[in-house]
Amino acid sequence: ALGLPANAPRMDALLPYRADCINTDCDLTEVAGALSESPSARLCLYGAPGTGKTQWARELAERLSRPLLVRRASDLLDKYVGGTEARIRATFEQAQSDGAILLIDEADSFLQARDGAKAQWETSMVNEMLTAMESFDGIFVASTNLQDRLDAASARRFDFKVKFSPLDATQARQLFGDLLDRIGVPKEETPPAISFDALAGATPGDFANVARQVRLAPSKRNPRSVFQLLKKELEFRQAPLGSGRRIGFV
Fold this sequence. Notes:
6 strands, elongated
């Protein structure tokens, strides 16, 4: 549909994974080493979208030479009563049978605080998830952008709770260079006036978004345009919802 070859590689997939551009509050290399020795743990990865939570789970599976079973809310939620619980149970059983690392994205959908539940099925869904987590003898990874919505009991079920944070200016410079390499622009063409302090707070996901944009807009394949696109991504993500001008008394 875009006029590209059918087998053209995805630009964002070509951006290299850089462990030194993942900001967390614990040493993930140490965690991965421990899991290679004892492959049984429950991890909660939380933080802003695009900070590398899902990608780290993929890298962990590759390092441990294990398959990765990924499930999202759309895969597990069922319209029938009891259906979601059955899907949750079947997913954990499949991961156990396959010896796979289980990654559930949007885990807050299944671990919402039960004291705010409005229907019985919401409580039973959380109960099923907590029970499945506790009995799972493998590596379970839950990722969420909304950790403040998690049920209090879930905190006791996780062996590691890892916070993922945005990039600092030095890391943004490194990923900027990687992006220029992928689009075939010499880094030497980067204007000296560019200050990467303006990109502090960006995420690897922002760079992936810009990679896709540049793929569709060849005229943007220059350092200055790429930098401006990255600033726009950061500004859009940081703008509060409904931040437009208001009318009347505030």
